[in-house]
Amino acid sequence: MNRRPPARLLAVSKTKPAEAVAALATLGQRAFGENYVLEGVAKAQALAALGLEWHLIGHLQSNKCREAAETFDWVQSLDREKLIAPLNRFRPESRPRLNVLIQVNVDGEASKSGCEPADVAALADAVAAAPRLQLRGVMAIPEPSPDFGRRRDAFQRVRAIYEAMRTQHPGVDTLSMGMSEDYLLAVEEGATMVRVGSLLFGKRG
Ligand SMILES: *Cc1c(COP(=O)(O)O)cnc(C)c1O
Fold first, then answer.
1. Which domain holds residue 134?
2. pLDDT on residue 1
3. In terms of C-beta density within 10 A (0-12 exposed, 13-18 middle, 19 or more buried), how is residue 107 classed?
4. What CATH number should be reported for the domain holding residue 191?
5. Over the chain, what is the mean pLDDT?
6. Residues 35-38: contacts with CB within 8 Å, 24+ apart?
7. Which residue intervals define the domain Alanine racemase N-terminal in the entry (predicted)?
8. Ligand 1 atom 10: the closest Cα is on which residue?
């Protein structure tokens, strides 16, 4: 018997218009993911009346921390120390803390986004010490290998990093991994949140 709660679905709406987000929201979907800060800000503003939850899942430049901290509910792509102080400083007092996942790169040279596994613990400690940020867990985008055995190995490495974080920070509850092609495999390997775009919205042009 699997007694874990079901994984949450993050609908990845990058490149899709606000109307497509609104249509999915009428079916009950609340959480949406965007890769680019300004594109996400525009959609979040256009759809503010719907009270949706916005996640930044793309690379965050330090000069976009202010917009990210003001608009998003979650930043899943925190991968370096430099982002922590500005996100904390710019998070408005009027909003709840900004939820943060540490993005980790478990494929070494094959991928450039995400921090080294060895750097996760220090980053997690620094996020946990920031009063306007809430450390929630780990995000990863393993290399899209055609070999699903390799993908499973990568998910298992991410899971181990997440479990290690949980022993240090017991409030951590989110393991974000798996996309349209491999979300079922990710859930089997312990994902608590899957990020699905093309399967929901159709192929991106
Ligand atoms: C685009 C993207 C997704 C969704 O990808 P699909 O293959 O369309 O499901 C998930 N996570 C991240 C970080 C992405 O950039």
1. 8-201
2. 54
3. middle
4. 3.20.20.10
5. 95
6. 35/59, 37/61, 37/64, 37/67, 37/68, 37/71, 38/64, 38/67
7. 5-203
8. 195
Is residue 139 lining ligand 1, measured as CB closer than 6 Å?
no
Report whether 11 contacts 199 (CB < 8 A). Answer: no
Cα gap 22→45, rounded to integer Å: 12
Split into its structural domains, the chain has a count of 1
Two structure tokens written together for 141 = 């985008």
Kindly state whether residue 50 falls inside one of the protein's structural domains: yes
Residue 90 lies in a domain: yes
Model-level pTM?
A: 0.96
In-domain check, residue 2: no
1, part of any domain: no
Residue with tokens 């490149």, as numbered in its chain: 15
Q: Is the CB of 145 under 6 A from ligand 1?
A: no
Give the residue whose CA is nearest to atom 6 of ligand 1: 197
Q: Is the CB of 124 under 6 A from ligand 1?
A: no
Which of 12, 24, 104, when mutated, tests ligand 1's pocket best, judged by the most ligand atoms within 8 Å of its CB? 12
pLDDT at 3: 65
Name residues of the chain where pLDDT drops below 50: none
Q: Which of 29, 56, 57 to mutate to test the pocket of ligand 1 (most atoms within 8 A of CB)?
A: 57
